[in-house]
Amino acid sequence: MQMKRAMLLALLLVLGACVPQKPEPAPEPFAREQGPVDFYPHNIGLYWIYLPQTDPPTYPTFKLSVLGPGQWDTTPAVQMRFVGRGQERIYFRRFSEAGVELLGFKEQITLTRVSFDPPMLEYPPPELLRPGYRWGGSTTTESVFLLPGGTQEQAALKIDYSYEVKGKSRVEVPAGVFEAYVIELTVTDDGGNTTLQEIWFVPHVGEVRTREGLVLIEKNF
Question: Where does the secretion signal sit in this chain (predicted)?
């Protein structure tokens, strides 16, 4: 069980593998939805192309795309597909006046489902996002295998998380130069293990640096 918990924590903290592999063809998402892009972008058809910050530009990339509406259990959600280097994951997020909440995700390759109870608040309401603002909470993550006859529990883990906007800075990534909110994420599991990660977020653009250390190299809007 301890090993399963360790594997779950690793999955939560390092969601993008950095070992180059032969890229796999993937179907495109729905046609891009026209109109203004939201503060926290989630218009259907938007996509972002990423590369680990230390990787050469010739290495295979990762792609995050907005697929459209879906459902996590009984909760309406927006589906976002992350694919690359032998991985395929579908995130289920709720965008509302409360901000952006991560309900869970499905690993399409390993047929694993990871849920957050309560949902993890990734971003606060737009009007609260400013230097010095903090938010966070506690959640229990549960991982199960998706089997033909149902599910099989893999592991469960309680985590405490906190975000803090450290400031606003001019940052440069392969996709360009942006004025980004620099956000620090602290995650502590119930075993006392703590991890710090940094995110660069740009309103109406999205994350130009993800918490896994992926930087934006291209987008379609």
Answer: 1-23
Q: Three-state SS for 9?
A: helix
Per-residue model confidence as pLDDT tens for the chain (221 residues): 555 555 555 556 554 444 444 444 444 545 677 789 999 999 999 999 999 999 999 999 999 999 999 999 999 999 999 999 999 999 999 999 999 999 999 999 999 999 999 999 999 999 999 999 999 999 999 999 999 988 888 899 999 999 999 999 999 999 999 999 999 999 999 999 999 999 999 999 999 999 999 999 999 99
| 75-83 contact pairs (CB < 8 A, 24+) | 75/103, 77/103, 78/42, 80/42, 81/29, 82/15, 82/16, 83/24, 83/26
Which helix (DSSP H) or strand (DSSP E) does residue 95 occupy? strand 87-96
* CA nearest neighbour of 87 among 56, 49, 48, 61: 61
Tell me how many domains the chain contains.
1
Question: 3-state class of 4 per DSSP?
Answer: helix
CATH label of the domain that carries residue 75: 2.40.360
- C-alpha torsion angle, residues 151, 155, 157, 161 (rounded to 10): -70
Of the CA atoms within 13 Å of residue 150, those in its CB half-sphere come to: 3
Domain that holds residue 149: 2-219
